[in-house]
Write a structure and sequence with these properties.
The longest helix has 17 residues, at 148-164. By secondary structure, the protein is mostly helical. Among the domains are: 101-177; 185-261. It is 58% helix and 7% strand. The strands form two sheets. A two-stranded antiparallel ribbon has the order 1-2. The structure holds a DNA duplex (20 and 20 nucleotides).
Length: 262
Amino acid sequence: MSERALYTTQLQAGLGLVDEAKTLLELWSPGMSANQLQQVALGSGRFPTITARRLRNVIVECFAPRYLVDGGAPAKHLKLLSPIISSGELVQLLLLFTSRANPILGDFVRQVYWSRYSAGYTHISNADARAFVDRAIDDGKTIKRWSDSTVRRVSAYLSGCCADYGMLERGSKSTRHILPFRMYPNVAAYIAYELHFAGVGDNALLTHEDWQLFGLAREDVLEEIKRLSLKSLLIAQSAGDVVRISWKQPDMETLCNVLTKS
DNA sequence: TCCTCATCCTCAGTTGAGCA
DNA sequence: TGCTCAACTGAGGATGAGGA
């Protein structure tokens, strides 16, 4: 596992923000900075119920760190895909990028959500999230020790964010029902190709932490890859522990175009 | 020294659950 | 049905680091 970024309280600026992200993706165009997007969004009249200050928070602290990284590649891909793919598929991609931008969420999903899910638990509480946050602070994963109030709030944000992404029951609750959650094939294709173009080798790809966001271990990922092979999105060959993948799409933009037609 | 920006934190309004 | 209280969330102030 690579060296991880420290945990922050950035989730507090906005949880899943699924609807806001969809609208901002419509308004954003390639090359547009966060500040430019803020001006466009302000002038668009698409956010009549929130103040300019709040809009700044949403764009600068949430949208930009999640989707405008790597030259805006995530936003570019999501903008291509969002009008075509299902809402569920889009939400899973939003989860992926939000987890990358907020390691505390990704680790919570991998370490708490899926361990509870696979152990047969039916609920996750803010107390579970709090225990996770407390442990992280003890492990030195924050710059400094958070106040009790911050710990309490961040703990609630973690479960609230999972609710926004369809993993937990929605609503204002301190204990939430765990919902059935399964990765969509198009999301699997997106992650597989994105990791490939990022330089991750075929075998290392199977154990990448992005898959663990969806509860997939190496063997599960291999099954997903084989399913993508059946859909002719790639060609996978496996023998023992070695996997070789022939990638059929030359770049992410082409893949997105293929996915919108599948 | 000042300015900008990112991050952290607090406050206050809103929402919803529980109960009489 | 209405009240109370806890939880949630948006808004914005405080703080500190880094650069001009």
